[in-house]
């Protein structure tokens, strides 16, 4: 497969590099035999495709009509040859995996774990995928670190003597440039204002309250934190939780139930998906970031009503994210808000990756896009990104927060957020707002915006296919082929740049990518080094799907020489 991979890279670079879908013709994406149960030709539907242009400033420039299998996301333009070779690579992996399993049953049957009468815990394609595909590249995931996740951190080296089935840690550390952590404002490292106050809080309150909020787990810090968050997001009240993932997965079952309708963006986070499923509400999905399709779904569902009875829905909620974590795209919030107000439905905005990271004063996509927070019924966010802490929040009306404090299991039964973590959030918000007596907060916000736009622009000039919008600190670089996932990650690590690679099932099968997260703590020299490394690795691996811009690239390399 490696030889085939190298051959196809050569073919791709000697041809047109990138082939956009012809318009206005339609076509069918090829479906490999081993995926035919999932992608049935009889279930083809029509959708809209967003095509990214590397010369644009991360704005969508064209929409085409094509025929694709019914998968729950908006497809991006994939080069024909890339799609073919990616399918072929997965087909080879699948075939060789099945081949090895067949001979293992014949020649190594005595090593089976199921001989004692117990049913196997892991079954089916999930187990096969883990054993035969994931384990090949598991060294690219879950790399332990031995320092704070600042602009640079120490990565613990690991090795394997059993074909990557197990990884053993060593005492060796690699000092790497951190492009994987979502430490957007740099608060994950020691801070001159936040850290002393966190240490003082640790001495006063201890690491944990060892109790839920309704028992002995509410301190004055928790009340102060909720007031601070409510003021920051400009909502009447807020409630905080000890874990960001739980905030979504525990809140939605409380707010929605049988007879309710949830309309969710097709690329919403897994915590939203699980929370929606756990609510018992009817779930409908609209095409990613396409307000017109949201309106179509709304009109259809309002007209049809509840399943079987066709009674009116008890309530309808539209759920979107501020910045989509795997795409780096900003939500089309103004248009979506207008549609929700038109049809009198609730809006739920997840600002996990946008709060604190975008906007003039760090107040998220509402501030960035000029949306009044009063028009958003429920605002959710996490403290794990921009604030260097843990937990999440829900902000809304006082009646809503009062209800959640008496009905949400995550508030009633889970241990409250750690007091030092609460102090970290309070202190970081004060820095962002300039209440610490300095302008460091404004400088951090300006720095992350400048860093993000600079890095995105340079990657596009080099010929990489980069998703997302301007001002977003999340920028996925498309890899596509499964062989390029470990190759890109390992080669970057060899050159002391730590990146995060993402593949199926976290992304669709064809759309593997490397997710770059930019921080305000990155200096211009850090970013230049990262660009040089990524450019070299991109040439080696073959992921520059666009032709580079020679003039600008030469000027940049001369002016920004680092080594």
From TrEMBL:
SUPFAM superfamilies: PLP-dependent transferases. It is a single-pass membrane protein. One of its GO terms (biological process) is sphingosine biosynthetic process. Residues 176-534 form the Aminotransferase class I/classII large domain. One of its GO terms (cellular component) is serine palmitoyltransferase complex. One of its GO terms (molecular function) is pyridoxal phosphate binding. Keywords: Lipid metabolism, Pyridoxal phosphate, Sphingolipid metabolism, Transferase. PROSITE patterns: AA_TRANSFER_CLASS_2 (PS00599). It is found in: Endoplasmic reticulum membrane. InterPro entries: Aminotrans_II_pyridoxalP_BS, Aminotransferase_I/II_large, AON_synthase_class-II, PyrdxlP-dep_Trfase, PyrdxlP-dep_Trfase_major, PyrdxlP-dep_Trfase_small. Signal peptide: none annotated. Pathway: Sphingolipid metabolism; Lipid metabolism; sphingolipid metabolism. Its main location: endoplasmic reticulum. It comes from the Eukaryota. Pfam families: Aminotran_1_2 (PF00155). Its cofactor is pyridoxal 5'-phosphate. Belongs to the class-II pyridoxal-phosphate-dependent aminotransferase family. This is Aminotransferase class I/classII large domain-containing protein. It comes from Phaseolus coccineus (Scarlet runner bean). The lineage of its organism: Eukaryota, Viridiplantae, Streptophyta, Embryophyta, Tracheophyta.
